[in-house]
Design a protein that fits this description.
The chain contains 13 helices and 2 strands; from the N terminus they run ααααααααααββααα. With about 325 residues, the protein is an all-alpha fold.
């Protein structure tokens, strides 16, 4: 067991290991283990896929109805997205921070969301985060989604389904989180350039101690860049399920990854992975871990913080150089 740090209420064993599919890309057994963990168990990947299928069948407008831009189906899409955010982020916040469903077990930072702090709108961290998430966040996510629906309906981009190409359909689902991690890393590094950080990204980083509503608490300029991950489908194609899965990954998925807890416990057993200490380190030390664990970009480009004291010192030195 690795040494525990008193700086945190909880953290996994340190230094952090590499859980990505690229950790041992030449080893078929390692790839198979990654695949089983992420796609053949009760993971966020599987749950998001099932949710995407359900939303496609029951909630979002049919592709046929999106051939022309009309307020009815655009409003329907926006309403579904608002309800998604309210249900997922709201339920996670209620369970962990109001009902105290597992107290502080597996919570990284022992502090509570900030109140009576003028750094935040309404002097309240949760209300501030909800405002940015449910206004600019949902609006821009819906805009990207509606444009993509329209492109699909009018065959201005490649469209495929499970029935006409099951292999491509499944590969598309597997690759979306990997693509999103690639896109997120480079957009995130760009947002940490001093000009962009001071004007836009600093709004998100007011949340040093994060919660579910922090995931989409961003400046509108950052929302525009973050959701541009969806534009990949304009080039390589998608099905409705792929698009909806990607929307869930970027929107409500951000609430899951920002819970501030590592896992959901049910009867003292870890049933669902949520936040990662990897990203929690980014919110505390800023100039590190710009990506996520699906891609090893931080390791490859020297911006990885493994949770050690040495990595903290290196990160602080990098920050001092960037802003000197």
């Amino acid at each position: 067991m690795a040494k525990r740090s008193s700086d945190w209420n909880y953290h996994p064993d340190l230094p952090l290991q590499d859980p990505s599919v690229f950790q041992d890309i030449k080893n078929p057994n390692a790839i198979l283990r990654w695949f089983i963990t992420h796609w053949l168990s009760l993971s966020e990947f599987v749950l998001m896929t099932l949710l995407a299928v359900a939303l496609w069948i029951f909630c979002y407008p049919s592709l046929e109805s999106t051939k022309t831009f009309e307020l009815s189906w655009i409003a329907q899409t926006g309403l579904v997205n608002i309800l998604l955010m309210v249900c997922i982020a709201g339920c996670l916040h209620s369970y962990f921070y109001i009902w105290r469903g597992q107290n502080k077990t597996l919570k990284f930072d022992e502090r509570e969301p900030a109140r009576n702090n003028r750094v935040f709108l309404f002097s309240d961290q949760v209300k501030d985060n909800m405002f940015w998430s449910l206004t600019s966040g949902v609006f821009q996510l819906t805009a990207y989604q509606c444009v993509t629906f329209w492109l699909m309906a009018n065959e201005h981009m490649p469209v495929f389904t499970f029935t006409n190409n099951p292999i491509v359909f499944f590969l598309g689902l597997v690759l979306i989180p990997i693509w999103s991690a690639f896109h997120f890393y480079w957009v995130h590094r760009f947002l940490h350039q001093p000009f962009m950080y001071k004007r836009f990204h600093s709004l998100h980083h007011k949340n040093i101690n994060i919660g579910p509503w922090s995931g989409l608490a961003m400046h509108p300029v950052e929302h525009f860049l973050y959701f541009s991950s969806l534009c990949i489908h304009w080039l390589v194609g998608a099905s409705s399920v792929h698009l909806i899965f990607h929307v869930i990954w970027l929107g409500p998925g951000a609430a899951m990854s920002h819970t501030g807890y590592e896992s959901l416990l049910i009867k003292d057993k870890r049933r669902l992975s949520l936040g990662t200490f990897y990203h929690q380190l980014h919110h505390r030390f800023f100039e590190c871990n710009y990506g996520n664990q699906e891609m090893p970009w931080d390791r490859w480009f020297g911006t990885f913080h493994d949770g050690s004291d040495a990595a903290t010192q290196a990160t602080r030195a990098r920050k001092k150089t960037m802003y000197s």
